[in-house]
Design a protein that fits this description.
By secondary structure, this protein is mostly helical. The chain contains six helices and no strands. It has a domain of 89 residues: DnaJ domain (Helix Hairpins), CATH 1.10.287.110. About 8% of the residues have low confidence.
Length: 241
């Protein structure tokens, strides 16, 4: 059976703090960049995580110790350090070396981060200076463009004012002509309206007379039919002869 203590390079009586330190050192060594370059170490990192998980859980650690004792003829768990190791990988070195490696890595990262920030600040200052120079060089050109735009705007305003004056004069003349036409049209429409009203009155009177005649004819027909039905009933005992 493979020992979790041997995987982490710890003695059989290692405490939880030592187990966590060994796991921290391993994770600092197997970074994402390292795993990209050495994908074969992914399995080693997973075995280290599994070993730490077993030893940090009291119940799982007790079960692991029982199995380890049952599979071994020598009580290796009672020893302070694991004796012989077929291979001495980096994670079986003393914890202080791993801690020193972590400190060096963090220091290097902090130094690179500061250098990057300084470089970014320098680039920002250079960009600011470049923009200031561009603005200074562009000011005369902007003034000339503004002057031209003002002249064009004045010419457009004068043309617009002349056009508006002509439009008003044309509008007044057009309105006067429209008024005269409207007056003549109104008189003509009034005469036509009177003529249409008279024609409609006559037509309405003719329709009413025709309608009244039809109503009288229908009423007389209904009276005659009723008289015939009455005579049939009197003579033959039925409404139809």
């Amino acid at each position: 059976m493979k020992s979790a203590y041997l995987t982490l390079g710890l003695p059989g009586d290692a405490n939880p703090e030592e187990i966590r330190q060994a796991l921290t050192v391993a994770q600092a060594r197997f970074t994402k960049e390292h795993l990209v370059d050495h994908p074969e170490d992914m399995e080693r990192l997973q075995s280290i995580r599994d070993a730490a998980k077993i030893l940090l859980n009291p119940e799982m650690r007790a079960a692991h110790d029982r199995k380890l004792q049952a599979s071994s003829t020598t009580p290796s768990l009672s020893m302070r350090y694991v004796a012989e190791v077929p291979e001495t990988p980096w994670y079986q070195r003393p914890i202080m070396i791993g801690a020193l490696l972590v400190a060096v890595l963090f220091s290097a990262g902090f130094y690179l981060q500061n250098k990057n920030q300084e470089r970014k600040r320098e680039l920002a200052m250079m960009e600011l200076e470049r923009r200031k120079l561009e603005e200074q060089e562009a000011q005369p050109k902007l003034a000339e463009v503004a002057k031209r735009e003002a002249m064009v705007a004045k010419m457009n305003a004068d043309a617009k004012a002349s056009e508006e004056k002509l439009r008003r004069e044309s509008l007044v003349s057009s309105r006067n002509a429209e008024y005269q036409n409207s007056l003549a049209m109104s008189q003509q429409n009034q005469r036509a309206y009177l003529e249409r009203s008279e024609a409609q009155r006559k037509e309405s009177a003719e329709r009413n007379a025709k309608y009244q005649a039809q109503q009288d004819a229908q009423r007389n027909l209904a009276i005659d039919q009723q008289r015939i039905r009455n005579l049939c009933m009197q003579n033959y005992g039925r409404p139809h002869c």
